[in-house]
Structures are given as C-alpha cells and as structure tokens.
Amino acid sequence: MSIFEKLESEVRSYSRGWPVVFDRAVGTRLFGEDGTPYLDFFAGAGALNYGHNNPVLKQALLDYLARDGVTHALDMFTVAKRDLLETLEEKILRPRELDYKVIFPGPGGANAVEAALKLARKVTGKESVINFTNAFHGMTLGALSVTGNSMKRSGAGVPLVHATPMPYDQYFDGVYPDFLYFERLLEDSGSGLNEPAAVIVETVQGEGGINAAGVDWLRGLAELCQRHEILLIVDDVQMGCGRTGPFFSFEDAGIKPDMVCLSKSIGGYGLPMALTLIKPELDVWEPGEHNGTFRGINPAFVTATEALRTYWSDDELEKSTRAKGERIGAALEGIAEAYPEAGLTAKGRGLARGLELPSGEIASRVCAAAFERGLLMETSGPDGEVAKLLPPLTVSDAEIGEGLQIIDESVKSVLAK
Q1: Helix extents (H) in 228-315
Q2: For residue range 42-69, what is the model confidence (pLDDT) as tens digits?
Q3: Which CATH class is domain 3-54+315-415?
Q4: Where are the transmembrane segments (predicted)?
C-alpha cells in the first residue's frame, strides 16, 4: 500500500483518475517522477491560466522571497498589497470603467463566494439567494447551498437553506422564454418565493458541464435584477482572468455586476488567493466582520501583480484565447459530427471547452483513454458526462494540435467498443 492509500483520506478524487506521482511541471506539461510527460488540459482546474512555473512569474516570486519580502500579513498594509491594488486598478478596473472596492477573504474561491453571500444579506437585510440549475460555487456550507450538484450537496450533512434554484439558460432547450418562471414568481405575491437578497451566477458553468450562457440571457438577468432591486453576483472563480477571452467572463454581455468573485488564476502562479470585488456603496462591513488568517498571502500578491502587468497591458492574450478557443471548438464539433448516432455535443466559450458524451461512464472512459495517451482532462456535468478541457491560456498551437489528436483517438477508441 502506498503512503497515499495508507494515510490520505478517501475524499481524494483527481489522483484516482491519474494514478501517477507527479514531480515537475513546466508550461503545459506535468512530469511523473519517472520522467513521463503529460500534456495538461486541466490546468489546476483553471488555477494555472499562465501555465506551470511560468518563468516571468517565477522570477518575480524568487526575487521577492530572496529579499525577505513579507510572506504572511493578515490584512496589514504591505508593499506587495499596494502594488497589487494599484496594478489591478490601472490594468483591469479603470480601462473597463468598473468601480469596485476589493475584499481580501480567505484564499479560496469558496471564501470569495461566502463573502459575497454574507455581504449581500447584510446590505439588504434579506436571507434568500437565487442560484441556478447545475451551478457550482464551492464546498463550504454557504457556497454549497447555492450549488446544484446533489452529490456535493449531500456531503453537507445538514439542511442547506435560504437558496432557491432557477433554470439556467437553455435548461428547457428554449421552449419557454428566458426568466418566465423566475419573474412570475417574483411578481406573484402568492408564489411563496422569499424576496431575494441576491442572484449568483456563473456565465459559463464549469463543474456543471461547460454550459455557456448567451450574452442576451446575461443582459436579461442583469436587467431583471435591476428592476427588482436584487444584487447580482457573478462567480468568476473559474471563468475569470481570461479563461473565456476577456479578463472578466461577463464583459461580452456588457453588464456590471454588483459583486464579482475571483480566485484560481487571479494569483497567477497557482498560489492561494481570492478577491471579492464589490460596488463601493455595498461596503458596509464593520472592521474585522469578515476575516481570515490567510487573506494576506503576499507571495500570491506578487505573482498576481506580475501576471496583470505581463498579460493584461494589451489585448493580445484575449485575442489569442478567443482564436485558440475557436480552433478547439471547431475540432470538437468535427468529432461530434463524426459520430451522429452517439449524439455528442461540443460546448463552451474561449478556452473553457467540453465534449458532451452519452453518459458519465463513457466520458470517464474517454478521459482514461486520453490519460493513457499522455493527456490530462477531467469530466464535469451533473452525471460526469462532459469531457472538460481547460488548457493554460499560454498553450501553444502545436500543443493544441497534439491534444486534439489525442482526444480524437480517445473518443474513437471508446465509441468503437
């Protein structure tokens, strides 16, 4: 029995699909301890948009550590935090005409979500939050309450309350007008719907199966929230930081959410970090009312700042991500068309892509076949029926071609059986 099987909890998951001990990682490659290379189309579940051990970010981190820069500082003022805030304002917020203040919650995406939910309730005095079918917002109790996946929800062990799910875009395949059910419940005093403090939404549902909301649907949601004085929270934990093309995944819709949750690739290098962005008028916290010991991991501030300076001073990464995403999307469409009897569906936006297969069992077999050929990708969706692709945004054209060939071969090998 390996030390992992002996001591590590049964809750581990990714290691079950990829039974190898990894040792090194560079760019879009992970290497087993025996030197075997694996093309990484997982990218730390979206935490490594700039690749493994990005040399520019690594150098900034090494320089900071070498000069004994502050590592842990709670919410104290530091040079690293000042540099991050100034760079975030200069490179991201001001060019997009976004007026947000910044909360530093705990270092994970669920922490950013919890801060947003907690603040929305404090601001409005209301308890209920609207979430959407197939949503995933994190594994803490508040975040789980607005998550759709029944398996993850069941792990809570207590009732998950004060949240009401509504149908996501295309949940009814376009049979009913957008928000027909939601708005009717809001306007009907006999509906039994508690008046919501906020709506929380992912513009592309990653864990939910790479379900991409249309820009018109997102605009309609923002307008509905404004009409009914409901706060709009966009969970951009996985789809932010350029995953769909623009820095924020909601930019194409032209909306300005009341709150935005960021984590994963906001730290740039894979170091733990999260931010909750809020409109200034919502900043009604009392000092220390929301805190956490590791809300000030300064090495992550350093790599986050360097990532913003390096990749978001112009629109080159955005254009590259859109182009690469279109290439992958077209290839997945081609694979789907090659097996009309299987009913495959290509999904996604930018470099968040997926191939929906007939079942979770088949999708798992496709991912296993890809692993055997040296490619890492995971499944998602309510039944794990989607093979999900999240390569680093810095993936090369040659690596995309290599990955697509492996996916094609893997689908062929599974469906042939």
Answers
A1: 298-311
A2: 999 999 999 999 999 999 999 999 999 9
A3: alpha beta
A4: none
